[in-house]
# Entry
Amino acid sequence: MMMLYYISSMLFLMISKMMMVMSLFMLMNKITYFMEWNVMILNSMNINLFIYMDWIMMMFIFTVLLISSMIMLYCCEYMNHDNNNIRFFYLIFFFILSMLFMVISPNMISILIGWDGLGLISYCLVIFYQNNYSFNSGMLTILLNRIGDVTILMGISLMMTMGNWNFIFNNKMFNLMFMLMIMISAFTKSAQYPFSSWLPAAMAAPTPVSSLVHSSTLVTAGVYLLIRFHYLIYKNDYIMKIIIFISLITMMMAGFSANFEYDMKKIIAFSTLSQLGLMMLIFAFKNWELSYFHLVIHAMFKSMMFMCSGILIHGMMNYQDIRYIGKLKYHMPMTFSMLMISNLSLCGMPFMSGFYSKDQILEVMFFINNNLIIYFFLMISTGLTVSYSIRMIYYLMFKILNFNSFNNIKEFKLMNYSMILLMFMSIFYGYMMNLLIFSNIESVFLDMMEKLSIILICLSFIILNKLLNFIKNFKVMYFIKYFFGKMWFLYNFIPLFIIFPMNFSKMYLNCYDKGWSEMIFKNSLMMLMNKMNNFDNFMNNNNNIILMMLNLMILMIIMMMMM
# Structure
């Protein structure tokens, strides 16, 4: 079975290299392919499959398959002793196929098939470890993602007025309701506020799933969908204002929640949530190229961060509280070095991959003449990113390792090998992409104070994080921890929106299906049939000649009238 993981890893790696070369070729020669394949003809009805190939699609497939290749190699050792590793392999494989099917298609019907496949298989992966916590997390995940599936269906019905489901040809048509449906679908899949609660809950899945699904593929599908529809969304300012407002709230909420969280995987999940908000924000300012640039770079170092956390959890016997993990620089130097690199790239450390996209986003935001509140929230979110990254490094590096007798901390050879390529991508990928593909993004020139303000904000939030450690035992801090730990009470509000429709449907079932309709239709028909049966028995048993003659006369009158 492990050989199957290894073969699929090598296959995905070779295909990803081909996709990278084709992406550069298409970009430099400005080539786009649109292919239509007639799958079958059923009762004079053509069933066609459409494929749209450009450099955006090729680059995204390269990112997905490269990370998938490393995850498959990672699973050779991580899932080696799991009893259900065959089921896990098929779930991961079909998830990748669903993702590719969604990416290559310009047709809303085909996108729906891939979109539904992503939601269904991600639910199966979240409940892979069969316990109550996984079942609750899976139910929350699939119910919130169903909202996006419904809006995609409504968007398909609205596209019927355009006469074509291939959205690539409808660039001159604008339907406000259709764009709202696409926006809500992107929000649910990318876990934007108020649909954010499913992403931290989905950390109940195995760590390779978190690395592939919840960092670089599933959650970025919403951003990718918006990028595909950017030429329509940019025609309406109200939609962009909604995206700006929602993305800022998501960044703030995720940043604060990560600073009060102790679960290692949830901290990284909140980090993903914050970066998705940043992608949405720069997209809403009509700069989709920069949003896409950050998307592909973020996928590299965030997947490696999840893989490093998986090694730590594997070594700590499934224990993932950062308060009990420490002194990793002595026990796991290679894993800790890779975790440091991914954290520094996330913070935007100069000349790391994340620096080339994140610093450029902040400079473009400074250059745009816009509301001061947007800059204020953006700077706070940037500072919070540095704060929770340094906090996690501090706990893992300087704190004392607890529960030493219950752990199996060591370097895992094959897992470390699978992260080496991602480590190099986390360091050099941003520089390469900045030269090869995204060099046409406009340069921004700021004065010295605006340049230094980003560094000063980050340093001030590191100091603020240290101050919070001194006042963490104050009574007011208990409420603050509870407030941010519950994602601004989003965990409490979201079930209300689920419970109300469920209670309403139960009331409808009891009052209508089992109530009025039961009494009117079923009982009334039964009473009528019983009366007719009793009348027939009365006629046959009593040999009532008068009534028989009366029935015969009525029948003859009816026949004469018909003649």
